[in-house]
Amino acid sequence: MRHSIAHAILACLRTLIALFLPATGRRRKCCVQPRAVAEPQSGTPSGTPSVIPESPWSRPWTSPSKEEAAAIFRRQAEARARAEAAEVQRQRERRRAAAYAAAGLEYPYTYEGAPFGAEAFANVMRETA
Fold first, then answer.
1. Alpha-carbon distance 96 to 125, whole Å?
2. CB neighbours (10 Å) of residue 108?
3. Does the pTM exceed 0.70?
4. Nearest Cα to 97, choosing from 82, 114, 110, 115?
5. How far apart are CA 71 and CA 78, in angstroms?
6. Alpha helices in 36-65 (DSSP H)
C-alpha cells in the first residue's frame, strides 16, 4: 500500500515539475535583460569602466602557516594558564578568609577601586589579635 502511495505522489510531483519547469536539455535564457553599464562617476575618466574588486572566492583558501598556528595555540595556552593561576589565587584567598573567620578574626579584603585599602584593617587586626 505504501509503495503505491509513494508512486502516486512521485508521479504527481513529476507532472507538476514538468509543467512548471520544462526541460529541453538546454539552459533557459534569463528573463531579465542586463542593464546598461552605469555612467562613470565624476572622479573617473569618461571612457574607463569602474573596477570590480576581485572576489575572495576566486582563489583557494589560505590557511595559517605552521608558525602562525603555533602562535595562536601558544596564546590560548598562556591565557588559560593565567586564568587558572588567577582561580588558584582566589581559592587561596577564600581559604585564608575562612581560616581567619574560624579564628574569629576579620580578613582584610580589598579590591581595585575599593574606597579603603588594606591599612584600614590594620587597627582591627591589632585589636582582635
1. 14
2. 16
3. no
4. 110
5. 10
6. none
Identify the CA nearest to 105 among candidates 89, 84, 80, 122: 122
Q: What Å distances lie between residue 44 and 20, 35, 87, CA to CA? A: 46, 20, 60
* DSSP-assigned letter for residue 98: H
Per-residue pLDDT reduced to its tens digit, 54-81: 887 888 888 889 999 999 999 999 999 9
Instruction: Give the CA diameter of the chain.
Output: 99
Q: Supply angle C-alpha 56, 58, 60, rounded to 5.
A: 85
Q: How many CB atoms lie within 10 A of CB 109?
A: 13
C-alpha cell at 57: 572566492
